[in-house]
Hints:
Elements: E1 2-4, E2 9-10, E3 23-25, E4 31-33, H1 62-68, H2 86-90, E5 92-99, E6 103-111, E7 124-132, H3 142-153, E8 163-168, E9 174-179, H4 186-193, H5 198-217, E10 220-221, E11 230-232, E12 238-240, E13 247-248, E14 267-269, E15 288-290, H6 300-317, E16 319-320, H7 331-341, H8 346-349, H9 354-363, H10 374-379, H11 381-384
Antiparallel strand pairs: 1-2, 1-16, 3-4, 5-6, 6-7, 7-9, 8-9, 10-13, 11-12, 14-15
Helix pairs in contact: 5-6
Amino acid sequence: MTTITANRYDNHHHHKPSRSPTVEFLPDGSHRHLLSSREDSKRLLPGLHNILSHWLAESKDDEAHERQREPLVTSPPKDLDPLASFTDKYGSCTDVLHYGSTSSVRLHAKKVSGRGAHSAKTPKQMYAVKVFRHSAPSNLTDSHLLEQRILSHLQGQPNIITLIDCLHDERNDLCFVMEFCAGGDLQNLIVQAGRLDPIESDCFFKQMMRGVEFMHEQGIAHRDLKTENILVTSSGEVKVADFGNAEWVDQQSGCTPRRSRKKKATRRRMSGTIPYTAPEELDGGDDSFLLPQEDESYDARAGDVWAAGLVYVAMRTGHLLWRVACEDEDGGYGEYLRGRREEGFSPIDGLGGTRCRNVIYAMLCPNAHRRITASEVLRSEWIYDVVVCVDHLK
Length: 394
């Protein structure tokens, strides 16, 4: 198995972080999360950064292409002057949370107007701003437009990251202004705790699956679900983030459009994502893969379910089950396949009750056509009984 570490996947990581309580169990049987707000952490929102997924779509089906070409829609807070500068609207940058080859994520803080507005203790409204460098209007690509279009389409579901505004800053770079999730991401929570409490994991998982179900019902596949892309507020509300790899799925055929339709061997470098990638999406070794051939039936939503199952196992165990879901390249995955056929696979069998294990096995079915769906996960006896901490989600 592969231990999750802060910046890499390391099979030789022996030190286990000391567990600090992040969940409190209440007398009525419910719970609440004890997640600190760390505004100055540089690892709070790596899930908003999309360093790996900015490879361009050369060709798309007509319907998806038209949707991507729609103009950018802005929806700033209603009390803001539309002619105000970026800094006037969203305050100044207090930190760079992540920096990559094509984009960065900045933490912005704006003082709340009112009494004591110039005091050092004045409350501040925090924003996470994803900045696409060199993205002046003349340089906007299908990739930018598709990500913004998909995010806008998914707004209103409480477990999808909120896109507050989409505009250009003073440098004329395209910016996505997002809600700030002070609890960080699941990756950091797992690293800090070693593994999460089962009740805590179940709560986060159910919220995540609600977000996944919603996007799938809207005909959207995320295509990059992993612990780094699942954010948490300080109160324990889960937000699915980073839609830079997301795609529209044809609702009638259930097929995902090919981004590599004109480039027969377009490769994506997915070094941080391969452990979560479903076997039907893999073709090749090392740290890259090829999309399946055009004539294959391919619904990327099944890949999301596979990745979500691995996210749950990572929360519960602090480990990833394998580096790559290919029997020829990873002995751990070969062990899993043999366990499915024979006496079971101990990392999953050790999760607890039969209802939980059965759902995870169904999510990690190697045959994509037989894999359980997000809606079926939520309708399972196990998840139906899971208590969600956030009141308005109950």
